[in-house]
Amino acid sequence: MLFSDKQKKILALLADGEFHSGTALAKALGISRSAICKQLQGLSEWGLHPAAVSGKGYRLAQPLALLTEDGIMGQLEPHNKALVSRLEIHDSLASTNTYLLEQAQANAPSGVVCFAEHQSAGKGRRGRQWVSPYGSNIYLSVLWRFQQGGIASTSGLSLAIGIAVIRALKQHFIHDVGLKWPNDIFSLGKKLGGILIEVSGESDGPCVAVIGLGLNLYIPETEGLAINQAWTDLSKISAGVPINKIQLAGSVLNQLLAILINFETTGLKPYLDEWRSYDSLLGRSATLYIGQQQIVGTVCGINDQGLLLIKKPDGQVQAFASGEVSFNEASV
Description:
Elements: H1 5-14, H2 22-29, H3 33-42, E1 51-53, E2 57-59, H4 69-73, H5 78-81, E3 86-90, H6 96-105, E4 112-116, E5 122-123, E6 129-130, E7 138-146, H7 157-171, E8 178-180, E9 184-187, E10 190-201, E11 207-215, H8 221-224, H9 234-237, H10 245-266, H11 272-277, E12 285-290, E13 293-302, E14 308-311, E15 317-320, E16 324-327
Parallel strand pairs: 3-4
Antiparallel strand pairs: 1-2, 4-7, 5-6, 7-11, 8-9, 9-10, 10-11, 12-13, 12-16, 13-14, 14-15
Helix pairs in contact: 2-3, 7-10
């Protein structure tokens, strides 16, 4: 799915978030007002729903700040910039993770970074689709090659990447954030972002990881209806302070690269205490779902291997390497 040239021109005019009359848009594009209406209706496929107000014209609910390569690279520390073998920004992809998995199979080097303004089939956990309206959020994947230790060397990587995201958010004065095991960014009991890491390779040799991140900056309410869990975005928790999308994207990438370059050597250990300080589930009553199995108990944090600890009703504490946690709302 691609924008038409006319839609791109319309978006460039509406990107400021101000009202633009149908007459002015039609004149700028050299087409009729009815043709403008048709082009605007087509934007709904991208999660964009321009508002029409009689006597004022059309406007987007939020201004659009589109990513640029120069803008993101300009945010990176020199030593991190050197780790980026290629940075790509796409209008739309099925999924940034899927794209980089294909690139990995074609022997793309470590350090390929991919951003997309829109995903038509964004990937969440357990096959869920990640709601990805155009230009509103950060959709990022990084291809990283681990040379030794095999797939086991990536154990706990999603926890460390969560710390990278929290660090970046705090640089932008977003403090009401935490982590939900194993790979969610949370704020006040609602999902703000998610991490998806897909690994392939040898059990005791080189392997490749594609690290994907979806981070909600602004989700229109119409798009939010498709999300089947409590969610939030930065526009709701930033206390009215505007978030510069390009600067935040650069900060996130900076923090990700700083962790990736050392993770093969250090593993999860240096990040355990910090992760525990952001644990959104600690002490809460929760249910862990592993396939058809359900384990009910109280979350007791993580062990030194990054496994989830749950205290069962009989008092036994058990560690789990995978699964999905749903916490009891009454304990929030």
